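INTERNAL AUDIT FORM
Audit reference: QA-55
Scope: verify that the stored structure record matches its stored sequence.
Auditor: D.O.
Record contents follow.
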Amino acid sequence: MSRLASVLRRHPTQIITAVVLVLLFLAPLLGASVFATVILTQVFAYALIAMSINFVAGYAGLYTLAHAAYAGVGAYAAVLVSRNLSHNGLVQLAVAVLAGGAIAAVTGWIAVRASGTYFLMLSLAIGELLHILAMQWRSVTKGDDGLSAGPAFELIPGVPVVLSGYVYWIALVVFCLFGGLLLVVARSPFGASLRGIRDNEARMRALGYPTSLYKYLGWVFSGLVAGAAGWILVAQLPRFITPAQLSFHLAGLLLLAVVIGGLGSMWGSCLGAALVVYMTDVVSQDLGGRGQLVLGIVFVLAVYLLPRGLAGLRRGRGANAGAAGDGRTETSAAAPRASEEVSV
């Protein structure tokens, strides 16, 4: 029993993550309604976008307002493939990923050469250009009327995946695959290099690192992940996408969700994205459409009360426990910044 307690103390995040994933997998079997499975599927999409934002913001210091648009590009690509080329869900997913990555590659080559406020404004311009393109290219996107996909996607030829529970499980698998890939890259030497560039780019450049190339590759990789999130956005019936999915409004909400969750914390990004979906799509219905007003108040309070985000709560408890256990000073008990920001 004591050994189990020791494991729980040493790896709380990993254990909680495993339990949550098991519960999410069992949700349709435990009686979750169609509405609940559709909302949770949207949470997976937004959480994956938030994780892709956190990868470049928390690890490379590139605060971005463009990734919601990259996800929207992936969603449009999946819908267009469904309408015109193939009903195969894997083909649609692959095209969505490639489309998100391709647009990130084209736009990121210029963006990563800026920094600070200039970079933020440039990413905003990229997102808004894609948003305007989606509104005005009516021959392809149908503009504000939105674009509907073809029939339900298939994994086995001739067998469409119609039931919301099955679509939910497939979306959960896609979320775990690409979210896990983000974590692997974030914890790799490449991720460590991005953190070094974030903390002191001039020093990394002096050490011989091609910092612009590293930031560019990280940007393109995050665009690929955002494209996968776009496929999840249109996985559930009625499989419909509008230009609003590429707008600054959603991009700003998701960037705030990342900040509230905690920069560098992937699980914090997921919690922040879940909060956005819950407040805008669930609570808003009970408040006469005022859910976003409440969400704004929550964001303001969180910025003042949780300056390090939700992830800072766990880090703070860990540091206090360590200091109390061995009598170290507060400074020596604090974990190094780099190790703090590689949390799940």
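Auditor finding: record pair retrieved intact. The first strand starts at residue 147 and ends at 148.
Action required: none
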